[in-house]
Amino acid sequence: MAFTLPNGAALTLPPHATGADAAAAIGAGLARAALAVKVDGITLDLARELPTDGERRIEIITEKSGAEALELIRHDTAHVLATAMLELHPGVKISIGPAIENGFYYDFDFPDGVSLSDADFPAIEARMREHVRADERFVREDVSVEAALERFRAEQQPYKVELIEDLVRNAPVDAPVTSVSLYTNGPFTDLCRGPHAPSTKRIKAFKLQSVAGAYWRGDSARKMLTRVYGTAFLSQAELEEHLERLERARANDHRRLGPQLGMFQFSEVSPGAAFWMPGGTAVFNELVRLSREMGAARGYLEVKTPQVFDSHLWKTSGHWDKYRENMFVTEYEEREMALKPMNCPGHCQLYAMAPHSYRDLPLRLWEPGLLHRREASGTLHGLLRVRHFAQDDSHIFCTEEQIQAEVAGVLAFAADTYGLFGLDVHYELSTRPEVRIGSDELWDRSEAALAAALDSLGLPYVVNAGDGAFYGPKIDIHMTDSLGRSWQLGTCQLDYNFPERFDLTYIGADNAEHRPVMLHRALMGSYERFIGILLEHFSGELPLWLAPRQVTVLPISERHAAYAAEVLQRLAASGLRADVDSRDEKVGRKVRDAELAKVPYMLVVGDREAAERQVGVRVHGGGDLGAESLDGFIERVLARVRERDLLREGTA
RNA sequence: GCCGACGUAGCUCAGCUGGUAGAGCACUUCACUCGUAAUGAAGGGGUCGGGGGUUCGAGUCCCCCCGUCGGCUCCA
């Protein structure tokens, strides 16, 4: 048997050689370090006989193989967790336990009345450590479906039985499933595809992190299981580093930063709705101003539509059927009314209020509309998921021929917007779902138009097959928060449905009525979510133009109060957000507090500055820049604000 | 909405096996009048998330509700 190693060298092995044999043939050190073997891109256990077909490129996976090694031992650790859990809770039903991005989980079903909390972790971890220390081998065994079913029925493991039955049922006709693989480590045997490291001792460091509920098979109609999350590493040091990283990320959580910086707070009197303090309101307004300016330059027309609409409108739009449980419904004078959860029906209504010529299209309506959605309590998450928010929402009415150009325009606008903040976003194209309206031919064209627009701008994207809206495909733009959770910001959706439902028309060049196409788009998404993401992205150090407080004046003693007031007056008159720290404190203290508040500029004023009409400039994180004339300072800072400079002075 | 945990002063948190609340910061006042990351002293401030219950007595134990956090489902 001949193989090719990653460095191009040839390796010849006797027949029936295993991955372990291959590693040993290369070197004794490699044999000791080996975790698994990869043949033609497929990872296998070391103990398995190597396949003889294919190109036979072979690579030994060791602890130094990075992500692949981590994935292996995390999956191993999940098995060890299940091992310990079965010993500590003999009646527990096990389901699945995969490796995930930063660790692993295992889902359990505990007998009624038994619940798990993180207080139970030390005992479970101790039992897990015993199994790791015992250096138990992972032994693979291929058994017939019947034997496997019999085994898990005997062990009263219904989830495993269901998994096997589904494997058989969902197998393609030309490749029926007749056997499954089992992995045994110590006293525990699990249904598992593999691969695994040779033995439990390869798990060098692990930790259980949290317990959470998770629906069996992700289906909210099914039973909720108990999920235990954990992580594992190839050294204790790496584990600790990872945990420290998580700790640091928590300091960037917008829910901590927002109140700290005096931007917003939440209250029990209105769950899921932020109270915006002056500082946060300033940030919010700057963003609205930005989208207004950028939109105006790209042909968007600002409109304002009502907050509350008669249910007739929602019946026309389809929301009454599809979205009612997410709406705040009210009633007066025997009319059923609802707060708007989206702007589109209002914009359609507005479009229909006047006749339109093809010459008017595309018509780009924009509204930073306030929306209310009755989100389930468990889904609320700081500013990233709220019940009351505003979107930079637009509806573009155009002809079918204009679709691709309009989508390209929206994507270019999006790239400009995100570029201004240095945000690293990723794009997803969601295509036709099972339940949909419209002909396949229409969907072909719609999806092609969106894909063509993405391609024309050279934007990489992943396809979410079947994830489109029932009325059309969409492009979603995502970004991750400080803890690695992904959130959708922008969206661009193609819609043939609403124009139909609202009977929207335009008069074409042929003097006949035609149906326009509608594009729904938001770039920042909701201003609330966008601000949350920005806070985390900048660790609370918002760029100068966005900072809740841009300048703070620090008089050295009470004697300088008058000059400080004059400086503040000049700053405020030039449109800068500024204040004076007139507390009876030493400058050192005032500087410290301003630094902690992440204020971009601190102006120290004392006798020297007052005499020369200067200010002592200090930049956040950048130290003392020395004295400068007040006029010069204001001019320079205003220029940077106008440019919406991303970087802070002195930190470039 | 579902599973689990948590909820003490504006903030961060103490409060052992039940015996009618405490610290630091913040705030107010006074002294100091100060040059780039915490001046000192004094003082005010709490329905212990809300409501029931057990008990001679509940921040501590039990039940219900609300909110928050970690997930799941859903979503901008």
Write the layout of secondary structure elements.
Blueprint: E1 2-4, E2 10-12, H1 19-26, H2 28-33, E3 34-39, E4 42-44, E5 58-62, H3 67-88, E6 93-94, E7 99-100, E8 103-109, H4 121-133, E9 138-144, H5 145-154, H6 158-169, E10 179-185, E11 188-191, E12 205-215, E13 224-233, H7 236-251, H8 254-260, E14 264-265, E15 275-276, H9 278-296, E16 300-302, E17 308-310, H10 311-317, H11 319-322, E18 329-332, E19 335-339, H12 344-351, E20 363-367, E21 370-372, E22 388-398, H13 403-421, E23 426-430, H14 440-456, E24 461-464, E25 474-480, E26 486-495, H15 497-501, E27 506-507, E28 513-514, E29 517-526, H16 527-537, E30 551-555, H17 561-573, E31 578-580, H18 587-596, E32 601-605, H19 607-612, E33 614-619, E34 623-629, H20 630-642
Parallel strand pairs: 16-20, 23-24, 30-31, 30-32
Antiparallel strand pairs: 1-2, 3-4, 3-5, 6-8, 7-8, 8-13, 9-10, 10-11, 12-13, 14-15, 17-19, 18-19, 20-22, 21-22, 22-29, 23-25, 25-26, 26-29, 27-28, 32-33, 33-34
The structure holds one RNA strand of 76 nucleotides.
